[in-house]
Specification:
Helix content: 25-40%
Distance between the termini: 107 Å
Strand order of the largest sheet: 7-6-12-11-10
Oligomer: single chain
Number of strands: 24
Structural class: alpha+beta
Largest sheet: 5 strands, antiparallel
């Protein structure tokens, strides 16, 4: 067997090594320079862009290069681009001949492929480097197709100043997308990479025009365009001073910068879901209102629109955009900011309580002076209704009924529910927030709030789609990147909130009177049905409005980014008008379909809103959430025993049963009755007992409104330094009754009709005893804090 010659083995090895070097010579990523962050609208137009970290305007490689640019650059730089393998030997030979003749470099002969390699390497052009460019250009042609190569060139060629790439150049010099440029404009840009210094305000315009016109003639000669088009294109002006790039969604751009890694997006450019037309109009709306509100030192405003059906962001205006005025802090994205939600969580409690069988839509809720463990909520109007239907309490955004509801539901349960449906900012334990959770005692972001309401709307929209089942993924957050949604189907029998409860909640939210409409909006057929809620945080620091339809959720926040409160910064006055102006931009649609199979027809007591009991006379049938069947029977209708005249109450100890008449009576507890009868003239108070009737035992005729049993109170000093007083307040069923007041078994006063006293007991624990003229007693305990220990 013949041995293989050693020289042949060495030559084979060298060939293999050279082949490997050739194959591996090209780096996996040609261009490692940082690129600008770019946000495009859903129609492909540029919304916002930020300069790259190296100070260059350099956009990521585009999916496609405009045909005009391809024709221009091929005609100008490499007319045999589609026919060579990276090196045009004919052009190189001609260039060498011209250079030798001129005894200087007058022609390069480089192909576009070779120029891509040169742009990626950025090294001095020695003979060795030129030879290496030839090798790498051939290698480039093996790895990339012609369209990809011209795309790399278009994205990385220098266009003067700090502008790199065709797209950045098009926006910087013409303020438009490259696809919209004319032949004259595109020819101007095509000659710039060859001589980028030609673009200089006030200089070199003559040279630039000549190079452009020569290219236009060449395009006509090569039949890309006719001569008439070339001649007309020569009349177009060349660019002067670079233009600023659009900043129509700057806060979303910054959000994308911060979230790009988490979103697993490789490029610094995204095609967003934003509707350019709506985004521009929303920007104009918030700018108009901001100009008005700044007279009251209210400097910031934000708006967010979500498409319910597609789970996409339609508009993202994180703030006004006035970077030149640093005092306004317009750079802060208020959609991401942690703020007090005011009353915007109340509909979520209303829905949760119906979902879990605690209330029906019109269940009466107490609205009386309340103190719970030292916490005393107040209604916005500082008044009391005594008792009010749950849906009316929601539409009027009353605080005390909301706290009473949360006290019944338990704040720990509500805290867990909020976390499940998308409120991600509850970072403290439930006890940290307590009952203040329902009045804005926590922090939320506009993003979470809008997404939570979108999840509810999606759940209700999908009632028929999922045949009564639920998809927990309906509560996934909206996406602002096109084609980046994940809609895994995982249908379940139960959800965080059922269809019926959501439907009833949206109906209650629809009843709120709109600002400036005085309730007349329903008379116009074009008026859109909107479920909405406003909110105002403590100290007038945040004004909110969130509204929804089956198609859209709109959330608006107004305030100051630094948290400064201002008089008049109220949701209904500052945020709601903005929200309704935004809704007018959106198309009208149908209202939510009634989830009939998730509702149950129940007999409801019309006066109390509870399930009708045996003594409820005015009964109506209503469609309520299925869990309503678990709610309590009406506790306020009781059978009263009256004498023949009906003027007095009696007992079997003072009247024979044969002489009695038995009548159903709607009767509230004394404290609720005290306020309720003021606003409800049809409320009938109980008749007094007939003389001689023993009413002792079990008849609750008095109730202490303030302070409540076991309450802790603090008595402040007056302006003159003297010790102040607290006002104790009681209610009695008989408005003409007399009450004898005692503190610590010491008599202090007597009241008739109007049972209020101003007292100043010393620090410590006290027993307050009330005795009426019939001997009925009410004993309760309260504690006065010591000033030094407060």
């Amino acid at each position: 067997m013949n041995k293989i010659p050693k020289a042949l083995l060495i030559s084979d090895f060298v060939c293999v090594v050279l082949l490997l070097v050739f194959l591996l010579a090209l780096p996996s990523k040609l261009f490692k320079s940082p690129t600008s962050f770019v946000i495009e609208a859903s129609n492909g137009n540029l919304l916002s862009a930020a300069i790259a970290s190296d100070g260059q305007w350099r956009f990521p490689v585009a999916d496609s290069v405009p045909v005009k640019f391809k024709d221009c650059i091929i005609a100008f730089e490499d007319k045999r681009f589609y026919h060579h393998i990276g090196v045009d030997f004919f052009a190189m030979g001609r260039a060498m001949k011209q250079n030798l003749k001129a005894k200087s470099v007058v022609s390069g002969g480089s192909t576009l492929s070779m120029q891509v390699i040169r742009l990626s390497r950025k090294q001095d052009r020695t003979l060795w480097q030129k030879l290496l460019e030839v090798i790498l250009a051939i290698r480039l042609e093996i790895k990339y197709n012609k369209e990809e190569i011209i795309g790399l060139y278009a994205a990385n060629a220098p266009f003067g100043s700090n502008v790199v790439g065709l797209e950045a150049a098009s926006w910087r010099y013409y303020g438009r997308d490259a696809k919209t440029l004319s032949w004259g404009e595109m020819a101007t840009l095509a000659v710039l990479p060859n001589s980028p210094s030609l673009v200089h305000p006030g200089k070199n315009s003559g040279k630039l025009i000549k190079k452009r016109n020569d290219l236009l003639d060449k395009l006509a000669k090569l039949k890309y365009i006719d001569q008439t088009t070339a001649n007309l294109s020569k009349l177009e002006p060349v660019p002067g001073k670079p233009l600023p790039l659009p900043q129509n969604a700057p806060h979303l751009l910054n959000r994308f910068k911060a979230e790009r890694k988490k979103l697993e997006v490789k490029s610094t450019r995204i095609a967003s879901t934003l509707d350019e037309n709506i985004q521009l109009k929303v920007n104009a709306i918030i700018k108009r209102y901001n100009n008005r509100y700044r007279a009251n030192d209210i400097n910031n405003i934000a708006a967010l629109i979500l498409n319910v059906k597609t789970r996409e962001v339609v508009s993202y205006a994180g703030n006004i955009y006035q970077p030149e005025n640093t005092d306004l802090q317009s750079h802060v994205d208020m959609i991401k900011a942690l703020r007090s939600p005011g009353s915007t969580l109340k509909p979520l409690l209303y829905a949760s309580m119906m979902n879990d069988g605690f209330i029906l839509p019109h269940t009466l809720i107490a609205d009386i002076p309340t103190q719970i463990a030292g916490y005393s909520p107040q209604n916005y109007d500082l008044g009391y209704d005594g008792a009010i239907a749950a849906d009316r309490a929601l539409s009027r955004s009353l605080n005390i009924p909301a706290v009473k509801m949360l006290q019944q539901y338990k704040y720990e349960r509500f805290y867990d529910k909020l976390k499940k449906i998308g409120i991600s900012t509850l970072n403290q334990p439930a006890d940290h927030y307590g009952l203040s959770l329902i009045l804005g005692g926590s922090e939320v972001t506009m993003w979470d709030l809008a997404n939570t309401y979108m999840g509810m709307a999606r759940t209700l929209n999908h009632f028929n789609t999922y045949k009564g089942l639920y998809n927990p993924n309906d509560y996934l957050q909206a996406s602002y990147i096109r084609n980046n949604r994940k809609d895994e189907t995982d249908h379940q029998r139960n959800s965080f909130l059922d269809h019926g409860s959501i439907w009833a909640t949206f109906n209650a939210m629809e009843e709120v009177m709109r600002p400036g409409d005085e309730g007349l909006w329903e008379q116009f057929s074009s008026s859109q049905r909107i479920a909405w809620k406003t909110g105002t945080s403590f100290g007038f620091r945040d004004a909110w409005a969130v509204g929804l339809t089956p198609d859209y959720v709109v959330c608006v926040w107004v305030g100051n980014a630094d948290g400064e409160g201002r008089p008049g910064l109220v949701g209904i006055e500052a945020a709601a008008p903005v929200m309704f102006d935004i809704f007018r931009l959106l198309p009208n649609g149908k209202w939510f379909e009634t989830p009939a199979t998730k509702l149950k027809k129940l007999k409801i007591c019309k006066q109390s809103g509870y399930k009708a009991g045996e003594y409820c006379e005015n009964v109506t049938e209503e469609m309520v959430p299925v869990a309503g069947e678990k709610t309590a029977i009406c506790p306020y209708h009781k059978l009263m025993h009256l004498d023949k005249t009906g003027a007095y109450r009696v007992t079997d100890l003072c009247e024979s049963v044969a002489n009695m008449q038995h009548k159903s009576w709607f009767i509230l507890p004394p404290a609720m009755e005290y306020y309720y009868k003021i606003k409800n003239s049809d409320y009938k108070i109980l008749p007094p007992f007939k003389n001689g009737c023993d009413i002792s035992g079990g008849n609750i005729v008095m109730e202490l409104i303030y302070p409540k049993n076991n309450a802790t109170v603090y008595i402040p000093l007056e302006l003159d330094g003297t010790r102040g007083k607290i006002v104790v307040n009681a209610a009695h069923r008989n408005q003409h009754s007399r009450i004898y007041w005692h503190i610590d078994n010491e008599y202090i006063a007597t009241t008739t009709n109007f049972h209020q006293l101003a007292i100043s007991p010393p620090p410590g624990k006290h027993t307050l005893t009330l005795v009426d003229e019939n001997g009925e007693r009410l004993v309760q305990v309260f504690t006065v804090l010591d000033k030094e220990k407060k």
